Structure formats: structure tokens, C-alpha cells
Amino acid sequence: MSIELTDVNKIYKSGEVEVHALKQASIDIPDKQIVAILGPSGSGKSTLLNVIGGIDRHDSGTIKIDEDMLDNMTDKTLTEYRRHTLGFIFQQYNLIPTLTVQENVEVGRQLSQNPLNMDDILEKVGMLDKKDKFPFQLSGGEQQRVAIARALVKNPRLLLCDEPTGALDEETGKKILSLLKYVNETFDTTVCIITHNNGIGEMAHKVIRMKSGEIIEAYENEAPLDPEKVSWV
Ligand SMILES: Nc1ncnc2c1ncn2[C@@H]1O[C@H](COP(=O)(O)OP(=O)(O)OP(=O)(O)O)[C@@H](O)[C@H]1O
């Protein structure tokens, strides 16, 4: 799934104060790539992901996802787009504490018209043998695997990840990155990863660097590193 942003602006207003969270952002993300979005806190990374994911609307400019323009999509079409095309993964996993692993993943499956087989996905993320456990019985890395399974079972063409390893230690974080790479290669999923960790840029096909709402740098990596080999900062 390819993504093309042209001169995208997003301004948040609270009272008299305006925050220009995205300033004339233009970027191409080719299909089937892993993209790392880097930048300091408040630089606009989540805003960029949220407008691409149709969670938030941009104020001006154009966003094209494959051949579809998000700009004038009705709320209904945007909901369909989020439901059928996207998977989201967050730093805090957002699992439902009263549901088992299997039941949490079932929530994702129910949202899709074209879901993948639940046990296959649980096996691929290494959680099949723990499918009857509750989130509190799992480590952070295991909970993130379940969150990835919940996103993947929908069979999304685009996976949007906001600090997916932010709560994890280096060893576990690298395992999660390896899983994202595996997902990208196995399912041809385009994967966008927001991170403070510059090392994650080393495994991406493309790196986008943001500062104060602007995309200040974007480059392709000739030879993305294996996730196990990236530096961890
Ligand atoms: N809903 C909102 N209402 C008002 N201002 C917002 C809102 N969301 C974000 N902002 C502001 O927009 C700017 C960009 O925020 P954003 O969350 O996109 O940055 P970020 O790079 O993802 O930061 P972090 O790494 O801390 O998550 C910040 O100044 C933030 O305070």
C-alpha cells in the first residue's frame, strides 16, 4: 500500500493557542516498505501517523493511499478504511484486561471482512501456547505480540506502529522488530514505525526525520540492517 502526502498541514487550536503540528508535509512511502519516523517529542510524528490512519483529519494538502484520496472522504468511508485496511500498534498494547489472548485477537478478527486464521497468526507471533492466558499473566513483550496478532488477524495492508518498542528492553524490543520485519516480508504489509530510537532507522527501507512539524529529512536505506543488529539508544 503506497502513501503520498503533498503539502499537508494540521493545526491544533486550544483557545487562543495554535499549534502547527504538521507544516507542508510532503512524502512518498512506496508499497511494501518499512518506514521509520524519527524526531524529538512534539515534532509531529503521531500527528503524521494519525492523519495517514484517518484517526485525525488534516486541514489542507492531499493524502493519497494507493489510488484513494483521504481529503474529502466521508466519515463512513474513513471508518471503513480504518477497519479494513489498517492495523494499529501502540506502546501501551491496549489489550482488554478481562479477555484472554485469544479473545483479544478475536476482537480484531471481528472487525475484518477478510480475516486471517486466528491460530495461524497466534502461532506466527509465538503466542499459540498462551492463548488462554490473560494479559496480566504475560510479559510486556508477550503483550506486544498479542497486540500485533490482533492487528494482523485483520489482514491489514498497512500497519501503523506508535513507539511499539518504547516500553520494552533491548532484547525484547529487537524480537518485536524482527516480528515486524517478518510481517512486512510475509504479508507484503507496509509498516510505519514511529520511534525516538534512531537505531530503528537502520532496519527501515526509508527514514523520515521530523522537527517542529516539518519533515526535515527523508532517505532510503540501501541496505537495511537485520533488526538484531541495529544499535539501541
Ligand atoms: N489533540 C491535540 N490538541 C492540541 N495539540 C495537540 C494535539 N495533539 C498533538 N498536539 C500538539 O501537536 C504537536 C505535535 O504533537 P505529536 O504528538 O504529533 O508529536 P510527537 O512527535 O508524536 O511527540 P511524542 O514523541 O512526544 O509522542 C505538539 O506540540 C502537541 O502538543
From TrEMBL:
Chain ranges of the ABC transporter domain: 3-233
Protein origin, superkingdom: Bacteria
KW Transport (keyword) present: yes
SUPFAM superfamilies per UniProt: P-loop containing nucleoside triphosphate hydrolases
Cell membrane recorded as keyword: no
Gene Ontology CC annotation, any one: membrane protein complex
Keywords annotated in UniProt: ATP-binding, Nucleotide-binding, Transport
Pfam family name, one: ABC_tran
Entry's Gene Ontology molecular function annotations: ATP binding; ATP hydrolysis activity; transmembrane transporter activity
Family the entry assigns: Belongs to the ABC transporter superfamily.
PANTHER family, A to Z: ABC TRANSPORTER ATP-BINDING PROTEIN MG467-RELATED (PTHR42798:SF2), LIPOPROTEIN-RELEASING SYSTEM ATP-BINDING PROTEIN LOLD (PTHR42798)
Protein name: ABC transporter ATP-binding protein
Species: Pontibacillus yanchengensis Y32
